[in-house]
Amino acid sequence: MKNIIALIVTFLFLLLSITQLASCTKDRSGEEINLANQMLSDKTWYLDYSITGTSKKTYLGQSTYFINFLKNNSTKDSDGFEGTYTIKKIGNVLQIHLLVKTSSTNSVEYFYNIESIGTNNLILYYTLSGTTIPTKLFFNIKN
Amino acid sequence: MMTHYFNKFLLTLVLILFITNLEAQVFPENKGTILTQRQKDRLFLKQAGKERIVKFKKQFYKTWNKVFIDFTDNNVMLLAGMNFAKQNIRANDYSSPFIYAVEQKNVFKPGFFAGFRVDGKYKEKYPYAFAFSLNRYVAGANIKESKSIEPLIGEFSNFKASEQSLSFNMTALYKKLIPISDTAKYKFSIVVGPSLDIRLSKQGIDNQVYNNYRKMFLRAQLGIEFENNDFYTIFFHYKQGIHSITKSPIQTGFNNFDLGIFIKASDLF
To answer: How confident is the model at residue B226 (pLDDT cuts 50, 70, 90)?
Structure first.
């Protein structure tokens, strides 16, 4: 009887240890940012489409806006803006924060919300102040 | 968090080992010297510790033999072979900011495994086997649900299937001999039983973010085995997942075939 109780206690202890280990969770926003950084950086992203409500503009096969994000967190776009970028998670949304300037202008800070990000596709959106309809920007790494 | 618990567990194990080692040490008693009360106490305590260990060992073996008294005629076998795995994935309402172009791979992809198993008889009547193996899976990803993102071309999914993994598998099998051919020389058997996999490899970075894959998964195993003159046994097993290997809402059924061979360890060593 004593042995059976000892076996049961050992089994319960093992079961408890396993479930305790398995139930651990952690804040994963850091990993989310890392993955987004990995997908975004060291690439030049070309704008393919811009959609605001029902209005859709296509830039496929044309000279289009592009933006370059480097691994050292620096960025440069086709409009001549240069600076740095950071990916942040605000609320439940990943954002790209940019701090840029041209040689003749002061620093400008703005951000885009990330709707979707993949190795080849990037969908960003922003809402201009005074409007409620967001503008979606579809980027691709191939022009 | 998990690493923290694991470190604590390891530390406790090391401490226990350290203490039991200290307790198990026996210092030679010099008959020419007079021992102080403190030394006598220490010697007494050491003996007590040693006795406790011996007592525990005896109790352990007694219990072990009592529990496993009905498991007889045990033979240790070494096994190895190839596996062919596939996963059927339904992402359901899973969403994340990450998108992946869907590459349909509705195929069983080859991997390999190696391990050992113990074959014996329960109550001298019912043949059984307990198998333990390390499995390297490369599983084809059959994505059953994908989505399109207008105006982008192609199909996408928010979930990226992890194709490669390493797992430790434990299986308990019931064996049934099929009376065909000359059973003294050739034995055909059907085996059936549960199979538990514990994933040892990390998930890819894409799945680490939301910890999509489960650490353990249970499957049902069914197979046939052919034993040739006690020299070797060739087997073909099928493992059917009985629950999803990914967390809700993603449903992933993981199935595989095992094609392998096992031989008695005593024939080799």
So the answer is: very high
CB atoms within 10 A of CB B119: 21
Q: Domain residues for A111? A: 29-140
For residue B229, give the nearest of B161, B183, B197, B268 by alpha carbon: B183
Given an 8 Å threshold on Cβ–Cβ distance, is B9 in contact with A17? yes
Q: Is the peptide bond before B151 cis (omega within 30 degrees of 0)?
A: yes
pLDDT at B25 (0 to 100): 45
Residue B212 to residue B159: CA distance in whole angstroms: 9
pTM here is: 0.73
Question: Beta strand pairing status for B126-143 and B71-90?
Answer: parallel
The domains of chain B are located at 2-67, 71-268
Query: Nearest by CB to A20, which of B5, B67, B211?
Result: B5
Distance CA A136, CA B171 (A): 52
CATH number at residue A104: 2.40.128.540
- Tens-digit pLDDT profile for residues A31-52: 899 999 999 999 999 999 999 9
Q: Which CATH architecture has domain B71-268?
A: Beta Barrel (2.40)
CA distance, residue B213 to nearest chain A CA (Å): 12
A1 inside 8 A of chain B by CB: no
Contact A32 B209 (CB under 8 A): yes
Q: What is the pLDDT, as a whole number, of residue B49?
A: 74
3-state secondary structure of B163: coil
CB contact under 8 A, A121 and B5: no
- Read off the DSSP letter of residue B76: E
Whether ipTM exceeds 0.90: no
From A52's Cα to the closest Cα of chain B, the distance in A is 13
Residues of A in contact with B207 (CB under 8 A): none
* Of A21, A56, A116, Cβ closest to residue B5: A21
Q: State pLDDT tens for residues B146-162.
A: 899 988 888 999 999 99
* Structural tokens at position B139: 């599983």
Overall number of domains in chain A = 1
**What is the nearest CA distance from A72 to chain B, expressed in angstroms?**
20
Q: How near does any CA of chain A get to the CA of B69, in Å?
A: 15
Shortest CA distance from B157: residue in chain A: A118
E strand or H helix at B158, and its extent? none
